[in-house]
Amino acid sequence: MAIIQFPKDFKWGAATASYQIEGATNEDGRGVSIWDTFSKTPGKVHNGDTGDVACDSYHRYEEDVKLIHDLGADVYRFSVAWPRIFPNGTGEVNQKGVDYYHKLVDSLLEKGIEPMCTLYHWDLPQALQDKGGWDNRETIEAFVQYADFMFKEFDGKIKKWITVNEPWCSSFLSNYIGEHAPGNQNLQLATDIAHHLLVAHGRAVKQFRDSNIEGEIGYAPNVTWFEPYSTKQQDIEACNRGNAWNLEWFFDPVFKGSYPSFMVDWFKEKGATPTILDGDLEIISQPIDFLGINYYTGNVGRYKENEGLFDLENIDMGYDKTDIDWFIYPEGFYKVLVKIKDLYGNVPIYITENGACYNEEPENGEVADHKRIDYLKTHLTALKRSMDSGVNVKGFLYWSLMDNFEWALGYSMRFGIVHVNYETLERTKKDSYHWFGETIQNGEFTL
Ligand SMILES: CCOCCOc1ccc(-c2cn(C[C@@H]3NC[C@@H](O)[C@H]3O)nn2)cc1
């Protein structure tokens, strides 16, 4: 039996996001977000689910902070709903929204839990979307105003800031694939939105530096891993393209100040070129203090002409899948982290999301989610392998603290280590919660 041990100063925690857990979408002056609009559009979200109630964390945050404390977490990652602060995206501040986040943050600090705050986790004010959303560069200005307000309002309380969560999801998944809000399907639009999200990130980092705010700032891109089916150059190059859509496309501009040329050429062939203004890449490549990494799944890929955007087909190798139909592929977690180190050096990394979807319900007040424990064991082992290979990982935040609104899949998919009964809103600690808590306490686990 192998023991997997983590450094004594390794930070452990869990993550959530505003639209997925808060509810109270029409309370205390909150403005409408694009996910309120999208979830209320027939056919967009499973079962017509919306975030109107979600986990009702807006009213139950003290109970949730106790769950985080009882877990033994060092850090809690949450996101701020931009429309709670600026209901119209810009202009007048909604003090009741600000007050809510002070109560949440104060409750965390009182229990010795470090808040890690994501500024943009997809709930863009609808008022900004009505003016073009992230396709309109004015939204960048609005984001900088929002970020600047939050930096100064919470200076000294929040010391780990994340500008943008998973820009690939907010650009390509939301505006090319069309599965997330606002649901466009246009590659040029998505490419420009991806660029504007990166500019917004860089502008917020510069504002943070210029304002001498205490703490650290980064962003949290999502990554996946395509392992070439064979050593054939076509398979290797197809997988490189698939990986680069999440990796190099969103990392090169930040760490190298340029887009990856092999992908620029590929997108050009597909009719899409990012609209870059003078100074954009200089702004985007503002140095960051840490990198958030979100990893869930990977797979084996093979070249197939005209398959998808990258002539890349997924091969079903028969790997086990979670209940959201994603392959369980911890090897990919190890490989993508080593590739990040090799490409971008040793920037401090926090795993800001990693988790498994399993939909067990409580029986006699318990949830025997042992497959989620197995997922955690294999992925934490892959993570430690990367650390032993020199990757500078500082912490791990499980996605998610509790079951919540899983975007287009609504409440049908459960990632939580705490079960939520959406009828009663009762929380039930799952077996994985207890296993994770022991791992945090011991700083190790046995494979
Ligand atoms: C090629 C076709 O693809 C169609 C679907 O493509 C994807 C890709 C990725 C996702 C996805 C969902 N999550 C979990 C969330 N991360 C942030 C947090 O809010 C979690 O709820 N991460 N990635 C969904 C769909």
Name the descriptors.
single chain; 447 residues; alpha/beta; TIM Barrel; 8-stranded parallel barrel; two-stranded antiparallel ribbon; 16 helices; 14 strands; 41% helix; 17% strand; globular; binds ligand JJW
What does this structure look like?
This protein has 447 residues and is an alpha/beta fold. The protein has a single domain, classed as Glycosidases (TIM Barrel, Alpha-Beta Barrel). Helices cover 41% and strands 17% of the residues. The protein has an 8-stranded parallel beta barrel, surrounded by 7 helices. The chain has a two-stranded antiparallel ribbon with strand order 1-14. A two-stranded antiparallel ribbon has the order 12-13. The radius of gyration is 21 Å and the shape is globular. Bound molecules: ligand JJW. The site of the ligand CCOCCOc1ccc(-c2cn(C[C@@H]3NC[C@@H](O)[C@H]3O)nn2)cc1 has 14 residues, from helix 8 and strand 8. The ligand CCOCCOc1ccc(-c2cn(C[C@@H]3NC[C@@H](O)[C@H]3O)nn2)cc1 binds next to helix 8 and strand 8.
